Amino acid sequence: MKKLVRSFGFAFKGLRYTTTTQLNFRIHLAATVLAAAMGFLLHIATNEWLWITLAIALVLITELINTSIETLTDLVSPTYNTKAGHVKDVCAGAVVIAALFALVTGLVIFLPKLILLVHHAA
Ligand SMILES: Nc1ncnc2c1ncn2[C@@H]1O[C@H](COP(=O)(O)OP(=O)(O)OP(=O)(O)O)[C@@H](O)[C@H]1O
């Protein structure tokens, strides 16, 4: 049990490190809060919550892995190296794919509801 608590402590240390050092992660967290607020305000359905949660998790997880691999790359290759560049670029590509998935998911779920809201208000 003590070991489990310690592991959670390390995991939160990693989350804190990423939050304090990575602007992109903070932006993703802000987007998470915005999406959750919109979800509550627009009363989205259970299956829509699942899609939004999946999109949020994918973006945050890829950003965490990206930060981890970036840090490791800097440790292994502090000077310029073409392969180190590729490693970082590929990781950044994974984050972009996740972010695009989140964008499409958000648009598909929120846009029709927002359009309806605007129509009703007009
Ligand atoms: N050691 C290196 N050798 C070759 N190219 C590198 C190296 N370090 C970085 N690069 C190139 O510069 C780009 C940006 O690297 P950097 O480490 O600044 O990532 P970043 O996404 O800006 O990180 P951060 O999220 O910390 O701002 C990489 O994607 C890669 O193309």
Short description:
By secondary structure, this protein is mainly alpha-helical.
What does this structure look like?
This protein has helices spanning 2-21, 23-41, 46-76, 82-121. By secondary structure, the chain is an all-alpha fold. The protein has one domain (2-121): Helix Hairpins (Orthogonal Bundle). The longest helix has 40 residues, at 82-121. The protein starts with a helix and ends with a helix. The structure holds adenosine-5'-triphosphate.
Average pLDDT confidence is: 97
Helix content percent band: over 70%
CATH topology type:
Helix Hairpins
Report low-confidence residues grouped into runs of 5 or more.
none
Percent strand equals under 5%
CA-to-CA gap between the ends? 58 Å
What would you say the CATH architecture is? Orthogonal Bundle
Provide the gyration radius in Å. 18 Å
Structural class: mainly alpha
Bound molecules: adenosine-5'-triphosphate
Q: Helix count, per DSSP?
A: 4
